[in-house]
C-alpha cells in the first residue's frame, strides 16, 4: 500500500511536471522559429550581419549574471564542475557561431534544417555513447519520421536540379562550406546538449545562460575577424526593435530547451525543436507570400506530425498508465545520471 501511494503521488507530480516541460519545449520551438524569421528580416531589410546579431545577443544576455548572484551562487559554477561548464559554454557558442556563419553561404531555411537534423541525430548517438541513455522504440520511430521530414526539406528544387551546368566553381565551394558549417553546428549543439544533461544536477539554467553569453562574447568577435564579415550598426528604431525581439526570443528558447534537459533525453529535446522549421516557413510566407514546393509541404507536415505524436505519447493518458508510471519510477531510480 505504501508503494502504491508513493507511485500515485509520483505519477501526479510527474504528469504535472511533464506538462510544464513539454509546454516550455513547444514555446521554445515557437521562439526558435520567430528567431529564424527575425534574423532573416534583420539581414534582408536592415543589412545586419548574422554574426553581428549573435554578438549583440550575447552581450545583452550577460545580464543573466544577476540570476546566480541573486541566488547566492557562483556564476562560474561550483568547484569541481567549472571546467565542464566552460566546455559546455564553448561547445554551445561554437555551435551558434557555425550556424550563424553558415547563413552567409546558404539560405536560412537550408542552414537551419541541416543544423536541426544533425543535432537530433547526433544527440541520440552521443547520449547513448557518453551517458548510456537509450531511446525507446516508439521514440526512435517518431524521431526517424521527423528526420525524414527534415530530409525532404533539403531536396533541391526543379530549377536547382537542372542548373548544374551553370554552377560557378567558387559559388559551389562557398555553398559546400556553408553546408559543412551547418552540419558542424549540429555536432557542437549535440555535444552541448549532452554536456548539460550530465551537469543538470549541479548547474542551474541561469548559470548556463550566463556561461553561453560570456563564451559567445569571446568567440563571436574572433569568428567575425576570421570570416571578415562586414560590420553594420543599426541606425533606426525598427532595426533596434527587431534586435530586441531577437534577444527576447533567444532567451525564451534557451530557457525552455535547457530546462527540458533536466527531465528529457537530449534527442527528444532537439526533435521537439524541429517545429521551428515549419514555424519559420509560415512566418516567412506571411512576410513574402510565395507558393511552397511539394517536398516543403510534405516535409513540414511530417515534422509537425512527428512532434505532435511525440507530445501525445508523453502526455495523453493510456490504459497502461499505472504500469507506465511504475516503469518511469524504476527508470529514474536506475538512471546512471539521476
UniProtKB/TrEMBL annotation:
For this record, an example GO cellular component is: membrane
- Give the record's keywords alphabetically: Membrane, Transmembrane, Transmembrane helix
Q: Where are the transmembrane segments?
A: 20-42, 48-69, 81-103, 138-156, 176-196, 208-227, 239-262
**Does the keyword section mention Transmembrane?**
yes
Please indicate which superkingdom the organism of origin belongs to: Eukaryota
Sorted alphabetically, which SUPFAM superfamilies does this protein's record hold? Answer: Multidrug resistance efflux transporter EmrE
InterPro entries per the record?
A: EamA_dom, EmrE-like
Give one Pfam hit by family name. EamA
Domain EamA, residue spans: 23-154
Designated name of the protein: Solute carrier family 35 member G2
- Organism whose genome encodes this protein: Austrofundulus limnaeus (Annual killifish)
